[in-house]
Amino acid sequence: MSQWLEKVIGEAQIQDYLAPVRQQALTQLKTEGWPARRNESWRFTPLTSVEKRNVNIATQGHDAPVPAIDNLNAIDLVFVDGVLITQVNGLDVPAGMSITSLNTDDSDTQQAVASVFGQVKPTRHLFGRVNDALCQHGIFINVEAGADITTPIRIVNLATQNLDAHTRVVVKLGEKAKAIIVEQGVGDVDSLTTAFAEYDIADDAHLEHYRFAMFTGAAKQLGGSHFKLHNRSTLNSTMVGYGSELSRLDVDIHHAGEFADAKMNAIYLLAEGELFDLHSTIEHAMPNGTTEENARGIVGDKARAVFNGRIHIHRDAQKTLAELNNRNLLLSRRGVINTKPELEIYADDVKCAHGATVAEIDEEALYYLLTRGVPRSKALVMLNFGFIRELVYDVPNAAIRDWLLPILSERFTHMEVK
Amino acid sequence: MSEQIEQALERKYEAGFYSEIESETFESGLDESVIRRISQMKGEPEWMLEWRLKAYRSWLEMEEPDWAHVDYPKVDYQAISYYSAPKSMKDKPQSLDEVDPELLRTYEKLGIPLHEQEMLAGVAVDAVFDSVSVVTTFREKLEDAGVIFCPISEAIKKYPDLVKKYIGSVVPRTDNYFAALNSAVFTDGSFVYIPKGTRCPMELSTYFRINEMNTGQFERTLIVADEGSYVSYLEGCTAPQRDENQLHAAVVELVALDDAQIKYSTVQNWYPGDENGKGGIYNFVTKRGIAHTNAKISWTQVETGSAVTWKYPSCVLKGDNSVGEFYSVALTRGRQQADTGTKMIHIGKNTKSTIISKGISAGNSNNAYRGLVQMGPRADGARNFTECDSLLIGDKCGAHTFPYIESRNPSAIVEHEATTSKVSDEQLFLCKQRGLDTEKSVSMIVNGFCKEVFKELPMEFAVEAGKLLEISLEGSVG
Amino acid sequence: MLSIKNLHASVEEKNIIKGLNLEVKPGEVHAIMGPNGAGKSTLGYVLSGRDGYEVSEGDVSLNGKDLLELEVEERAREGLFLAFQYPVEIPGVSNMEFMKESVNAMREQRGEEPLSAAEFLKKAKAACKQVQLPLDFLKRGVNEGFSGGEKKRNEIMQMILLEPSLCILDESDSGLDVDALQVVADGVNSQRDGKRSFIVVTHYQRLLDYIKPDFVHILADGKIVKSGDASLAHEVEKSGYAFLGKSYEEAEA
Questions:
Q1: A358:B67 CB<8 A
Q2: How many structural domains are present in chain A?
Q3: Cα–Cα nearest to A403, from A134, A49, A70
Q4: Where are the domains of chain B?
Q5: With CB atoms counted within 10 Å of each terminal CB, which end of chain C scores lower, N or C?
Q6: Model-level pTM greater than 0.90?
């Protein structure tokens, strides 16, 4: 058991309406303890920087500058060091949706929250359990059936001090509802953020989702986004990961209904001694679902990228189509890429495929660029960044596309290219 | 249609008979005295005994691995007998005429005639029966070429320098739980040495047979191909049909020195247990080769037997320009569980590896590919290509793929692809419309699926493997 | 300008070019015709320096420089331009970014300052217009999702922007309808300035009605077997490659 986890357990206060989930998480934390060194889930991502950490949780919020995304025109919900500083009660929200704090006395809201809180996120995630037990600040977003909310909702986690932050987002999309939700995390101080979000997407609903895990430097982020897809619902998710001393994102997409469709693109660009670890699990529990996942990353300098992409087709999930593709480029001899796409299949009438590559350059494309006089080193940069750019082009929201491309391009040019 | 396929998948295990041969078998149990007795029975030098004891002591400290995608009751290592040999072997026969005729009949029944004149020309066989090697054929012809091919127990005495230098050099005593156990208690196996610049004049082959009840088989094979040499080695295995599980924990070490080539082919057909998962062999095997500069190691395996398989024939590509290959067909049915694959460790520059894995799952079985491709910081220009295809027959089985890829070199290229498919109704319809019955159709489709691997097998083995697959699928398809 | 002497080249150890000689002077347009498999496309790849195309014998010089000594991109900067028969798609790399990089590489070679973004855009727009490609092509990935005709026009647009001294057009007519062919030919003809030279590789005489050659060569089995003026192309048009012998006729069929 780690010193940090012991303190976390001591810190837990379990008395509100979410007690059953919190209690279960706490019990699991106590019985299962800290992962052993060879634990498969943390095999390539050492937790040494958390192990002996002190537990310091902010009680008071303060203002901090929120990074802008031009032309997004979103409703911003901001946590600073784990404290929700946005006055959600006073927000002007579009008709058909409501935004409330998880600290609510309203019993209907409590009931709605409880139907999602800890019900979408699997219990196996260590820091998810920590979040279950400790999170005191969180947001509940409810989109009514049939509502088409075109105003994006952005949730920002800012880490400004050497503190632990545990924030939670709970989203419920009613039948045929549509919403755009952006999760963003920023900060470079020696902080620890567990930001977990759970999405329950009802029949025929559509979620456009973004997660920008942009913590850097000494910040530690251990978060996750978890989705439950009901009949014919659709998810289009784009994730961007920067690396930091320790960055880990767990994503679960659970096809709980038939004919659901999930699309997920992930980009990671890592430099210096950064680490970014993306674990995604796609659970096809019901027939006729489709999933397409593309994860692409570039690793420079002494950075390490860890990717684990699992597709699990259950016995009943006949006629599933699932594809996962992971492409990586390593720019430096001191960097490391660990990738593991996994298939676990128990139904026979399915089409599943995964692929993973490291450092594959299309020789024909390179030749073409060279015949036009482009210097070899520039051509490599172009082609390398090209495969990231492809995923940016795929982003459905124009404002986000226009914001992402230059910042990723900027980050890339600072990475070491052979 | 898939029901029909499943019915057709119920087949018999043809090698499941037991031979009445008088044997000398140790009482079950394992401690240092058992290891001393094994060593004594084999008339081993002191250093070998010491080596075994060190392995045993490490093993006691180790834990049985549990990460594989297999599930089986814990093995009681004290309930196994660690040595069993036909009585007639006590004074080792000097020629085939002195070999117990029942034993020869056993091998004949398995389709492996040991009489040289009856054999396929060009294949030398070492036959290992429970814990001992019973006969090695064509030895003289091989000796003329300078090739050493003999039981490892004999090599320890006759070529101690070679054995001492290479044993444990590829799979260290403490490599893993089963390798440590094997190092402590191995009883026999084959030893091969191909001298510099020599192309082994014939295929070498070992047949392993577990016969006695409650015994484990712990063979150890060591193949050393000296600079610029070439050898092709085949391995086959069978066991009687029994209700108990029997343990097979072998170690195979290959050393390919500069410019040498080793081709190692396996057709594994241990008893898989019955339809309900009763009985069968636990096949926990460690196979690894080390390839020096410009050397090449090629593993080809056709795995159709065993209740549980845990096996990852691997290549350490140490020398620049060395090449590693892994071609595998694994068929599971009934309650069989297989977790098999390979490790390609790229250390040298411009090293290349190819992995082609074909998994076929039927019945209630689970079939997993597990692999590791590792590109070290020095492996400039290294390349790997991996293709893993799974075929599911029926909706009660599982097919899994767990590839680990690690790269630490910017100029190394790794490509991994995995797909899964089924024998489609359309394919079956087409075959049947052309006049084939379902069984033949499925076997044809499955054979087509495995073609890339079969073509890597030596001719005689390819035919055998095709037949084995056909038998395995027999009755499996209605 | 370009001088090819006794060129022998192979692909995957198969000899394709077997002793080819050709002299191209400034401002000349040479057409190379020949049956399938004669080595027409190979010639373009060998001259541009593609990997896997091995020169076993012979000399090639461009503007006095030994071409065979140079890397692919160095040859391009010496003024050699190859318009591909099947241009590759490069998703994620925009035409604009790509062309700006190459135009500036050419300028650097000529000792000129790189173009500013605005100057480049102006030039690129003009070139786009000239080959009748919509402006948003500049933003799209290189050849990504382009039709066959669009790809060919894109090649010509690149040629206009890069201002090479020698252009090799590899079957730039294949798969084009008459209108598209006219656009491509107009683009090429606009670049004929008395100094720039062209090698037009084609299977059919059709393209040569639009781009009038000064010389026509027949390439067969890796060698130039017959040379003449434009009338030779018409001869081929009328009677096919029959004069080369029976085996070629069969290859044609």
A1: no
A2: 1
A3: A70
A4: 2-472
A5: C
A6: no
